[in-house]
User: Fold this.
Amino acid sequence: MAKNISFTIKYWKQNGPQDQGHFDTHEMKNIPDDTSFLEMLDILNEELIASGEEPFVFDHDCREGICGMCSLYINGTPHGKTERGATTCQLYMRRFNDGDVITVEPWRSAGFPVIKDCMVDRSAFDKIIQAGGYTSIRTGQAQDANAILIPKDDADEAMDCATCIGCGACVAACKNGSAMLFVSSKVSQLALLPQGRPEAAKRAKAMIARMDELGFGNCTNTRACEAVCPKNESIANIARLNREYIKAKMAD
Amino acid sequence: MSNDIIDQCVAQGVPFAREYGGMLANRSFGGAQVSRTFYAKGQTGQQLLLGAYSSLSAQVQTGKVKLYTRYEMEDVVIVDGHARGIIAKNLVTGGLERFTANAVVIATGGYGNAYFLSTNAMGCNCTAAIQCFRKGAYFANPSYVQIHPTCIPVHGDKQSKLTLMSESLRNDGRIWVPKKIEDAKALQAGTKKGSDIAEEDRDYYLERRYPAFGNLVPRDVASRAAKERCDKGFGVNNTGLAVFLDFSESINRLGIDTILQRYGNLFDMYEEITDVNPGEVANEINGVKYYNPMMIFPAIHYTMGGIWVDYELMTTIPGLFAIGECNFSDHGANRLGASALMQGLADGYFVLPYTIQNYLADQALWPKVPTDRPEFDEAEKGVQAEIDRLMNIRGKRSVDSIHKELGHIMWEHVGMGRTKEGLEEGLKLMKALREEFNTNLFIPGTKEGLNVELDKAIHLRDFILMGELVAYDALHREESCGGHFREEHQTEEGEAKRDDEKFFYVGCWEYQGDDTKAPELIKENLEYEAIKVQTRNYKN
Assistant:
């Protein structure tokens, strides 16, 4: 049975990338603990609008953990703390206690400029994918899918890499603002599959070059990204990316 | 064509499940008795989308495609009877921008969010489609709305969204409610749990009613059967609006490891939301282990109706094309599992690229349409005037509060079981709600810059018109078929009763110049040449 909790919410307000930004606070009363975190923010916004104020702006879309839009930094952890990893939209209020102070901030990274409040521009990730996160296949020319035999273990491992939703939590958690977990998951998915091999070397080089160009930092193996990834991507992917990259560079 | 789609996706690097021999694996799905669906864990749709996104990204890199993210289409511009551009709103700056084109393709999805609570993403809206409707495109079969049986039940009035649990769960999960009404009452009061009820006291109503398909009946059948049980008082949670989906039998038969391999991520997601782990032993009765069952209930999921298109996917406005869920084609009155993916990919990869050429063939002879033409001026002025109107209502109610009310009206009167009286009442309530929206809406902030509430208000204006369209179509269609169920038209066993004599047509609706005027019906008769029309039987 749901119980109600009351708490204080401190949320980040910032009017565009140039604004300095500040925290606003609001007292939340009697919120059922089976409410999702984003639904709690909906309630906050209803209260703000009722008093004539502008709502708190944040990104969200599918609200079932697959689109990668929701992106809140909650009490110092991207997406908030859960044991097995979940996106912000799958965080429920039963994780919080009566009397808590809950702090909500945007992803903070040079690569993700703030649009407004906690809505950030993550099109840098699109640009990294555009650099090479695909197989160059023209529609209508594909060969029979069963003509490419793929060992089950490889397919399963590629699937695990493919579950990355590109939310950017890895960047937000990293002290260097590195996008390595994201890039390595995408590179790994295609590196593990025969369809991705022909362009593997080119892809690793191009995606890393684009990542550097866009201002993301380097990896120093702190594993902060792995700890917060809602899809449990492993830093073994980063090791694979490094191997792919070194192989490609050696061949140059 | 479905083979071409799978080939295409595999070539893109979509990691479909494989057998040990390296071939593609299959599984069964709702509405099918054989295993013929390719899959990627419980997230096939998401992986197909990522595959399409990667191919799109490749084209962006070559410079052939330019992405405009955080933009929304507000109007289609018609020049000499042809769609020749759009007016779009830059959601970040709030500014309107003009785009000129040889043809316009909308791929803007369905209208499920008219019900407020649905499995659609929060951003899904029907504004682009409705604007095309206002400009003269016919809207076909709006009453065909799919209600998905396996969603997490509604838990309170603050809920914003219903979470879909993958249909694949019905492969190994068995759906049931208690046989005895006193057990159902105890479950509703919270004095009993699902795992307290022994096998012999469980009513596996889908297996009972549909022995041939069992738990894999099509979605509409499964949804209505759940509603029927809950209406009779057999619901299993505190609201009485939920049924169980139970894995005890398959876990006991196949072992927990196999089940977790198949559905582990879905079990995790379910536990994160509800605090209940379906993979955990909860009770043992007479030596049989009972696991925590999931609770599920039907929710709005997909809309078969949409903008009318011809075989070339062109709407009734020349040069305006509609693809994917936003058109009405392919599914008829119902849609079986996995086929929305088929339609989305078929239209985009394999149909439109060929058919649009017929329209574009003589375009080289046409003069380029500049964006300073009066048609663009007029369209932009219209959008601007609407934005000003909405901003200046300055009433008392938030967009969401009115949207929730619309959702209640839709679910109550235009939902799973429809009646003449209910639909007429729904139409009356929606008319009153539009008046409330037009006079009592409050949007904070200004129209300049990012204003989320303003954008939601534009969507809601169109959801109200959409809701009415669904109700008008449902009211006129005096039969039950697929996603449309009229309680007056059912067999003695409670199955849908079609009336091919009177309703063997596509119901197309034409806008009459004003949102408050009822749309006009135009019929497109159905002509079948290769197949014999019959009613599917899921019982035996």
